[in-house]
Design brief:
Elements (H helix, E strand, L loop, with lengths): L2 E2 L11 E2 L6 E4 L7 E7 L2 E7 L7 E3 H6 L12 E4 L4 E2 L1 E11 L2 E10 L6 E3 L1 H6 L3 E3 L4 E4 L2 E4 L1 E2 L6 E4 L3 E3 L3 E8 L7 E10 L4 H4 L3 E3 L2 E5 L3 E8 L5 E3 L4 E7 L31 E2 L4 H10 L18 E2 L19 H14 L2 E3 L8 E7 L7 E7 L2 H4 L12 H7 L5 E6 L8 E2 L1 H6 L2 E3 L2 E5 L9 H12 L7 E4 L2 E6 L2 H18 L9 E4 L1 E2 L2 E4 L2 E4 L1 H8 L7 H12 L8 H11 L7
Parallel strand pairs: 3-7, 5-11, 6-10, 25-36, 26-31
Antiparallel strand pairs: 1-2, 4-5, 4-15, 6-11, 7-8, 9-10, 12-13, 13-14, 16-18, 16-24, 17-23, 18-22, 19-21, 19-24, 20-22, 27-33, 28-29, 30-35, 30-36, 32-33, 34-35, 37-38, 38-39
Helix pairs in contact: 12-13
Amino acid sequence: MSHAFKLNRFQHTRAAVGRNVRPTFTVALTSSKPESILVKIGRHYYRSLVDTGSDICLIHKKVYDSMKNAPKLQKHMVHLQSVNGGILHVHGCINLAFKIGKTEMQHRFYVVNNISRNVIIGRDFLYDKNVRLYFDRQCLRVNNDYIKLENDYAISSLIRLKQDTYLPAYTSTLCTGKIKSHFPRNKSKSFMIQQVQSGIIHSDPHLTVTESLISLATNTCPLLINNMSGKSIKLRQGTVIAQIIQTDKINVASLNSVSISSEKITPSTEPVKDSEINVDPQYLPIISDLINEYRDLFIDNDCELGTIKGMKVHIDTGDSPPIRPYRCPLNTRKYIESAVKEMLEAGVIRTSNSSYAFPVVLADKRTEPGRDKTTKRFCVDFRNLNSVIKPMFFPMPLPDDIINQMTGCKFFTCLDLRSAFWQLELDEESTKKTAFVTHVGHHEFLKMPFGVSLGSQIFQSCIQKVLKGCESFSGPFVDDVSMYSKSADEHFKHIRAVFDKFREFNVKLKLKKCQFMKRFIWGFHLSEHGVKPDPHKVEAIRQVPTPSNLMEVRGFIGATSFFRRFYTNYTQLAKPLIDLTRKHKKV
């Protein structure tokens, strides 16, 4: 009489048993997200694959040989066939006593030596012991004991450290990993190294393994382990670090070299649309022709940024030691990843091995003036660096002085530099001092970063050098350059002169924020008759509701103080409000 196993949803081969026929069993050895549990055999625990596609239970020959007081090996004439048609060599079977969770039990296991797992628990055990699998809850039930299902890794695919390894704080260390000798190696094929989802590497959020592609000729491979914690860590020889898997060759560009694409984003050469130019309609044709003549100065994104020629920035910190960071919240990771990617593409940062490592923070940023909607701005916390930077006593221009120079002029233009600080290149020594660390990795700035205390003074000195010879009709104030003239024809000449300087030094502008041929600038109305406050700004202050708390009082004082030059005895007028900001005063 013969018996047949019913085909399940895995569609495995039928197993038939006859009186004079050796039974043939199917062993699935699936790899489509297998699950595993810990099984205790004697005094040792073994990671065991729970394979619903396998008809029987298997144990590796080396595990059987290592057992003390091992049960007698019984000769059992069976054929074992894997799903792909391969034949497994069977040494025999044993009645094995083992423990899952708190439950001790016995079951028949077949001893084989050409499987990639130590132990495989098959469907016969699940039926015999009435084991229930709950894949949605990631557990199985044995009697009343619930056992957690975990990701399974083939023993042969695990990468262990070849020797004891010391990981200094805030560094990436190149180590040597070792793979089991029976792992199939092929120099013509490509393999991917991935971090395992269990063990010390997975449990410590500061330790990560960089994913990489390798060709495998021996049973050793390189590993890049990142330690982003503030302490040094020692990993012992044999520690499981990563897993190696074969990849599809068609998805690999090259294994012989690593190169950065030489393809550069070229600035747009298309004519600027009239709707993009902020200018009075009567001067639009002339200004439009002028902008299109100097089209290379106006860029649309930071990837087109250049470097101001002939200028490099040096950050002098004296003999101060390197500075270490703190962690950033997990919920900010998507913003950080996006910002780092954009800066890498723009050539603003690069990967770093610096001994400096500053933390990052995300600040709220309004998307549009007057709107409540905000987005996140990526910032590096350079406070500790700023505390050790040697001061630079460069005189910053006062807005009032620039406005006084404009007295008597009729036409005004304000140019806005695109990501101004990122147009200044850092020298190699200063680059190391701007390194920052995130979960993405360790990076450093190639361009002048925002947040450095001397940033404004350094840029002001550079832009004044760029505009040397144009001082009589231009007033640079950090990343804003204002031009003023008494006639339209004179003003066109002045704009052209400044554009020529910018082209000579490779300075880039942001057209969206540039204003041409205006009478209102920086909140003031300028004319040949003098300076007056912008009527729209004055009306906005009049519409401010009566302050009801300390913060609103301070905000109102700040808004009115902007136009204090137009008040007589402003301090005396504002004294009652200023007194409310003192301690123990009620609003």
